[in-house]
Amino acid sequence: MGAGAVQGMGAGVLVLLLAGSGCSRSDSIDLAAIRGCGLDQEFSGLRVRVLGDFPASGGSELLLGPGEQGSIPELPAGATGVAAEGLFGTTTTAIGRSWGVDAELGRGRLPGFDDAPVLSVFFAAPDSLCEVDTQPSARAESAAAAHPSGDVLVVGGLDGGGALLDEVFHVDLLTGEGRALAARLPQPRRGHSVHAIDGRRFVILGGAGPNAVAQDRVIVDVAGPGSVTVVDPLEVDGDALVSSDHATASSPNSARQVLVAGGCDVVDPQARCDPASALAATHWIDPAQPSATVQLPPLTQPRFGAHAAVSPDGVAWVAGGVGSDGDRLGSVERMRPGEAWTIVHELPEPGSVRGLALLDDGLVLLSDDAGLIHWWSEAGSGTLDPTSRAPPLALVSSERPMLALPGERVLVDTWLFTPGTAAVDPASGRVELPPIPRYGGQLLSLHDGTALIVGGWITGTQELAAAPLLRLRPRLDGPDEWTPELAGPQNDAFVSNAPGRATVIVGGLRLNAIAGESDALPLVRAHVRGFRSRTLRLEFSFEAEPGSTAHVILGQGSETLVAIALQDPLVVRRRGPDGSTGTLDCGPPASAAVIGPLVLELGADGHQLRLESEAGTLATCELQWPSSAGVSVGFGASGAEGARFFGLRLARR
């Protein structure tokens, strides 16, 4: 994309014109704001930033006053989006981010832009929860999915009287408009899942109607008037894969790899699972390819109605649900690549898991029906204090889904919180989202960093929410959206895998280690919240307390990490996604002392690590990562006491 002009904006108008020479087009590209909520005042300025894993520069960022115009040079290679921030003085009062950088997605879809290429931006106040303009009827237990094309499909479920629904509802996120398709499901159903496939199409898998589990797949195309088509089922070794109330999770690394776990294959007249038919089977599926299903090891416990997650390094997790005896389960199972499922944690009785969220570095969060949030990692387990680290939640009788946002905050009910924050006051990370508290809705992560709540009940009642669709616009703190000032006044720049063991101090961070071998991989770690990169520079100094070792760490996903033990001699260790560990050959032993200030650099698209001191190079390593996703950076402490890190400065290279 080439150079262009940007105009300042009022409460609801934002236009960015980009010449198309760099995209082999001569036409301009419009950046159109889809108005959200909380836009009640005029702005004194507009900041526009091109997002991506590259340093901020004058060529990719500009600040405009009211009515001013400016220019944006050619978008850098690897640009992932365009952010716009409305300012009132120095305060950011409204934010938005484009739906990627493919302006062809919006061509012909937004009213007023005719057939022009356009980037759509949902623009709203930071941490605001907005009702979608056009709503389906109130419902529970529907299934929904978001598509990279900017579409959301909401399918089936139960109405307020408990009747099964056959409605198919489409939301175009690039326009903010919704509609019920004229075409409907071949039969009403619950317990199904919905997945994006090619074009603007979705596939519906499994589920059940009265006394019968669905045998087919249903393809829904939302282009034009929309259509619903019944096709052949998924297959495993030539047999149909049939289940209802199964858990699913998409791989962050491949839109065509989805984990399907558990479920049931016998239902009653209300289409509810018969516990005796609970399944332990798990599979990787490609929703668009019926014959591409890969059978995985079975779960340790058969279960239906469970929750699932997959980390960027390919580690899969399943928690909660109902077992074959009809009892609610409080266990968490993990499957590393190439290994079997293993129970890694279980809530104390009578606790049962009602929701699951997974943060990088292996921090697992579990919600229950009593209003508590529990955590587990290799560093330990516990319950988050509902007066500080977790929100005060009501008792519920339904599921309580959670969603990890790009900035490593977590959405539960209508609250945001930061469970692993190193802030001095952990309660500062809690945000209650008005206007109507609710629980039990499905939570969808969207391509522009926003999130969608689908369905659910009004908190404190058994009444379904009248406006089932709410869109959350979190603040811009995702992997490519910010680079925190680690030594500045901001105190929420770090998150830990062991809540309570990392604390921001003046100018830095302190980690409280767990007693053990000082030369082992550190159990207690903290990384920069939300920040991910394949090309970075971190300046720091450290001080290890007696009997302890300080570490600087790069990580990806739940398991994969590279830890440099800052000792004499310096040792670099790696742990892979399968849990295997080893020592990396990073060149000849360093002749320089391992004392600060130090500089860690990651380059060559994340494959080369260099650690330097003022006296010379300490280590140069070649690295391999399980995926092309960004890498986190942070610190660890092992041994008897802990370690302190200060003089911190982080930048993209």
Automatic annotation (TrEMBL):
InterPro entries: Gal_Oxase/kelch_b-propeller, Gal_Oxidase_central_sf, Kelch-typ_b-propeller, Kelch_1. This is Kelch motif/HYR domain protein. It comes from Enhygromyxa salina.
